[in-house]
Amino acid sequence: YTGEVGYGRLPKNSNPYEVMVSLSTAQDLISDNEKVADLLNKKVYISITNMETEKNKIAEATIVGITSDNTLFSATYITDDTYRVLVKDLFDIKIEDTKTRIVQLVVNDENVKEYVKELNDSQDEYTYETTSDSILGTVNTILDVVRNGLVAFSSISVVVAILMIAIVVYISVLERKQEIGIIRAIGGKTKDIRNMFLGESLVIGLLSGLIGTTIAYGICYGINQLIWSALQTMNENIPYVNVANLEPTTALILIAICGVLSVISGLVPSLKAAKLDPIDAIRKK
Hints:
Blueprint: E1 5-8, E2 18-21, H1 23-29, E3 43-50, E4 55-67, E5 76-77, H2 80-91, H3 112-122, H4 131-175, H5 177-185, H6 190-234, H7 248-265, H8 267-274, H9 278-283
Parallel strand pairs: 2-4
Antiparallel strand pairs: 1-4, 2-5, 3-4
């Protein structure tokens, strides 16, 4: 942690049972008639997880500091040396004997990203990341789940859309039988009839794709603004991130796909229209 300490002080390496919590965590811990500063020197229970055995241990610690930042989830900060002592005391193992661990380090360094990079470059045993990166990683994981669900629903929507376009074009063929017969009677070829309805299908697909991508751009902008505003209330140092984004190239590809799918969906009705007998088409509606 490299931000400001709002209340109290940083934990000392000499005492493994001192912790610092984020401002939002402190606000969750206090009662209605208490102030955030009242948490200083109070006891709190922290959970330490041994990732190798997936066992948890509960330890009692003293809150000695409160940050000035808000975090998405409850955040408790301890020093690296503190973690070493806790692992030894709680699990009766040395830190060298465990390969993975989750711990939030207190780093008194303004260039936190460079510091974290140096830590990761200096060894291959552990992976360090900043609190903001951890929050964004959690948000991206949630968004991936939502995105996969939307893809499934979108696939169903595509199938339904293809069927609906085919039905619309087929109804158009039935309603325009006399028009088809007249075109054939004055010398129109079967390919002209077929291309006429395929062209209508293409226009429907391109317009629907254009409208859909325009709406998608608006939704992406709204989602980005909403999530960024929510994150800013928790930590104003979090940069603006496009969690929902539709690239122009992707939009053009989607519009083209809509056109192709529309042509495919209108293929059967257009072939049926091209095969109509001119005399029967003129006589019957």
